[in-house]
Design brief:
Length: about 400
């Protein structure tokens, strides 16, 4: 009898991420304090604003919001994003700005368009797990881009590019998922110079850039090497992930192909969510709402860092991000974070073991903690439980 394995395409086997899915299944149970996901706080959803905008959109332009739309994205949203991108220091023409069904879709479509089986794709080590899940289907050969406490190392990229033919480079320079690290200005300049010199293409994934709780913004790599960078961002962390809205600023010859791939994938992104987002940006709601979100997450970041200081001082080290949603913890090398994970589940707290974010089998003693989705009053308790589980394993 035929099994599913007889039916699946060869590439599908690479899509198998069951280990982490199995592990995280247990976090669904209601009484677990989960630092595992990458979810925004429910309190951060601008329900009343969206209600009002919906009403306005459906009264003023119901057909545009409910009809099929262009694969490039809704005109008013793209126009609003051109202006928004300019405020981020990215100058873009309308044909370079496209809207997608979440930024996750862009990762999939870029893989589909650019990556042949066995092509070299450079990813920060560690990197965003979802990028690996998207790209895996296209069977790339990952080259891990070494990182240190300040993020991805430019010299290491140059060495990789000198020795290999590289199809694509993927990085999250702001408040990286999973480490929370942000690349400094000097490193960005070096990376931009290297991209130009080697005629390389970088996907600069930036869903967290606006979630800065302290310090000052660093210019995007896109602004330094516009022809060599696909800039990718999202409404998921600043408005709502349920609307499924991502957007890119891509060099013209890539945006043209992205539109073709998008057409084949899902024709276009939902018109109603796009109409909502257009008004959210152009009507000035985004900036006002962001200040609410920043206040909320700033408190949560302070709470988790204080709790780590209190319960894990001299046991572990961790990053001190100035924004985003994640803190990265490194345990002594003898401790296995997956073992800690199962002890943590017994103590009703969850996180993601860091090895899943690596492409070279390292990172066994690291873990990613999310702080945006747990109330600040409970983060202390969560970290106390986590510290207990680390001690269980150490013992
Ligand atoms: C770095 C990074 N890129 C992309 C995504 C996907 O975001 P979206 O909801 O826009 O698909 C996430 C989601 O957590 C992310 O952390």
């Amino acid at each position: 009898m035929k099994t599913i394995d007889d039916r699946l395409a060869t590439r599908t086997t690479r899509m198998n991420a069951s280990a982490i899915r199995e592990i995280l299944k247990v976090t669904q149970s209601g009484d677990i304090l989960s630092l595992a996901g990458g979810l925004p706080a429910p309190e951060a959803f601008p329900v009343d604003i969206v209600k009002g905008i919906c009403q306005k959109v459906l009264e003023e332009n119901p057909v545009q919001a409910l009809q099929y739309g262009p694969s490039e994205g809704l005109g008013p949203l793209r126009q609003a994003l051109v202006e928004y991108a300019a405020r981020l220091g990215i100058s873009a023409s309308l044909d370079e700005v496209l809207v997608f069904t979440g930024s996750q879709q862009v990762l999939d479509l870029l893989g589909k368009l650019l990556v042949n089986t066995g092509d070299n794709v450079v990813v920060e080590n560690p990197t965003y797990l979802g990028a690996l899940q998207s790209l895996n289907a296209y069977q790339p050969n990952y080259i891990p881009w070494p990182t240190d406490d300040e993020g991805a190392i430019p010299d290491a990229l140059e060495e990789i590019l000198r020795k290999n033919r590289v199809k694509l480079i993927y990085a999250v320079p702001n408040f990286q998922n999973p480490t929370g690290r942000t690349l400094g200005l000097e490193r960005r300049r070096c990376i931009a110079r290297i991209l130009v010199q080697y005629e390389a293409l970088l996907v600069e994934d930036d869903p967290y850039g606006r979630l800065r709780y302290s310090g000052t913004d660093v210019p995007t790599i896109k602004s330094m090497a516009p022809d060599n960078v696909v800039y990718l961002s999202s409404f998921s962390k600043v408005l709502s992930p349920g609307l499924r809205l991502g957007w890119v600023v891509a060099p013209h010859e890539i945006s043209r192909w992205l539109v073709i791939a998008k057409q084949g994938a899902d024709l276009h992104t939902g018109s109603l969510p796009q109409a909502i987002a257009a008004e959210f940006v152009a009507g000035g709601y985004l900036d006002r709402h962001l200040s609410v979100v920043l206040d909320l997450y700033r408190r949560r970041l302070a709470a988790i860092l204080e709790a780590l200081e209190c319960h894990l001082n001299e046991v572990a080290t961790w990053t001190r991000p100035q924004g985003g949603m994640f803190v990265w913890v490194t345990l002594p090398a003898v401790l296995d974070a997956e073992e800690v994970y199962w002890k943590a589940i017994e103590r009703k707290v969850a996180f993601v073991p860091g090895k899943f974010f690596h492409t070279d089998g390292v990172g066994n003693s690291t873990m990613r903690l999310n702080f945006s989705n747990t109330h600040e009053d409970r983060l202390g308790e969560a970290i106390e439980r986590l510290a207990g589980s680390i001690k269980d394993v150490a013992a």
